[in-house]
C-alpha cells in the first residue's frame, strides 16, 4: 500500500490538471472528426510516433516486483489535440491493459502490434487539452516480437537490478507513449520498489516515501525529454554528489560495491562540463550525472540528465574518458537539440564523437588527440557510408560516429576556431529543447561563416567515401 500522503499528492495533481483542462476553450471543430495518424512518417520508421496530438506531460506511476519483474503501472498523459480527433494512437507493445480513461471517462481501445488505438466517448476538439490514463500490468518485453538494437530493449531486468535503454524505439516496450523524438514532453516518474533497492531516473529527485518494506521514489523533469531518453534504474546504488558547475548539480549513482571506483572513473565530469559550457553554450538542463548498472553492457546511452553505463566502464582509462565525454556532449546535441527524424542521426553521434575529441585535447594533449583522430580517419577508408542518410540498419554504424566527427573537424580546420564555435553556439541556442534536421545545421553554418558550404557538406555527408584528409 502507498502512503496516504502519496495518494493525496496524486489526487491533488490530477485535480489541478483537470481544472486546467476545463478552463481551456478549444476552437469549435470544423467538419467531422478524424482519427489521428498511426505514425509521424519518419523516413526510417514511418509508423513510429503518432499524429493528431502533442504530448505535454507524462506521469509514470509504477509498482515493481523485483522478484518476478512484474510491473503494475498507471501512465497518465496530458496532451493537446492538433486536429478534431475521433480517435488517436499510442505506441505500446505487450502487457495486459486493465483500464483506459480519456478525461476520466472509459474509452474503447484496440491493439495491433505496437499500435494502441483509443476511441474516446466523445470527439476531442482541435487544440483541446485532454488527459489519457492507462492502467496495465505484466512483464516488460514478454510475448513481444519486435526487432531491437542492442540499446532498444526498454525495461531490462538483470541479476542485480533494472536499467532502461530505448534508442530508437524501445520506450513503447514499457509504457504507452508517442514514441518519436519529434514529440518531447516533461515527465514525473514515480517508482515503488522493495527495500533496500534504490531508484535513479531523469530530472530531479523530489522525494522518497517509506511504507513498511517498500519505498517510493518520485523524480520530475523540468525540461522536455524525447521518449527514447527516458530512463529508470533500480539496484543497490550509492549516490555520490559531485561538484556543482555554474549552478548545475552533478550527482551519480554507482553500485554500492564499486562506489569508490565510480568516484575515481567519473572524477572529470565537472571539468568536462566547464569545457563544453565554453565550447557549446551553458549546460541546458537542471542537473547532470551518471548511473552505472551493476552489469556489463556493450554500450553507454545518453539518457537525459543521467547517462547510463554498464559496470565495465569502471575499468577506466582513456577509453572510459572518451565514452563519458561522448555521453555528456549528447546533453547539448541529441538531448536538448534532438533529431527531427532518425535520418538526422549524424547530428547526435557525429557531434558527440567530436565533442569527446575536444575533451581529449585537454585531457591528453593536442598531439595525441591528432593521432586518435587520424586513427578514426584511417578506419573509415574502407567503410563507405552516406552518413547524411545512412539507412535504418546503419543508424549506429561506425562511420556515423567517426566520419561524422571528421566532418566537424574538417569544418573547424576550414573556418577556424572562432567561426566554428560560433556556429555550434548558434545552432544549440536556436534549437534548444526542440528538434533539428541536417539542413538546419548547414543553414546556420553558412549564415555564421558567410560562405557557401554546399559542396563541402555534400562531400562529407552525402558521398559514401570519406574525402581527402584536410
Task: Note the topology.
Layout: H1 4-23, E1 34-35, E2 53-65, E3 70-81, E4 85-91, E5 96-102, E6 105-106, E7 108-112, E8 115-119, E9 129-138, E10 154-158, E11 161-165, E12 186-194, E13 198-201, E14 204-211, E15 214-220, E16 232-235, E17 237-245, E18 248-255, H2 259-265, H3 269-279, E19 290-293, E20 307-310, H4 318-329, E21 337-339, H5 346-363, H6 366-379, H7 398-415, H8 417-431, E22 434-436, H9 438-449, H10 454-461
Parallel strand pairs: 1-4, 2-12, 19-20, 21-22
Antiparallel strand pairs: 2-3, 3-9, 4-8, 5-6, 5-9, 7-8, 10-11, 12-15, 13-16, 14-15, 17-18
List its traits.
Immunoglobulin-like, alpha+beta, Zincin-like, Neutral Protease, domain 2, 10 helices, 8-stranded mixed β-sheet, 470 residues, 4-stranded mixed β-sheet, 3 domains
In terms of DSSP E residues, the strand content is 25-35%
Largest beta sheet: strand ordering:
6-5-9-3-2-12-15-14
What low-confidence regions span 5 or more consecutive residues with pLDDT below 50?
Answer: 7-26
Enumerate how many helices there are, as a single number: 10
CATH homologous superfamily identity of the largest domain: tricorn interacting facor f3 domain
CATH fold-level label of the largest domain: Immunoglobulin-like
Number of domains: 3
In words, what does this structure look like?
By secondary structure, this protein is an alpha+beta fold. It has three domains: 4-151 and 165-235, tricorn interacting facor f3 domain (Immunoglobulin-like, Sandwich); 236-331, Zincin-like (2-Layer Sandwich); 337-461, Neutral Protease, domain 2 (Orthogonal Bundle), CATH 1.10.390. Helices cover 29% and strands 29% of the residues. The protein is built from ten helices and 22 strands. The strands form seven sheets. An eight-stranded mixed β-sheet has the order 6-5-9-3-2-12-15-14, covered by helices on one side. The chain has a four-stranded mixed β-sheet with strand order 1-4-8-7, with no helix packed on it. It is globular, with a radius of gyration of 22 Å. The chain starts with a helix and ends in a 9-residue tail after the last helix.
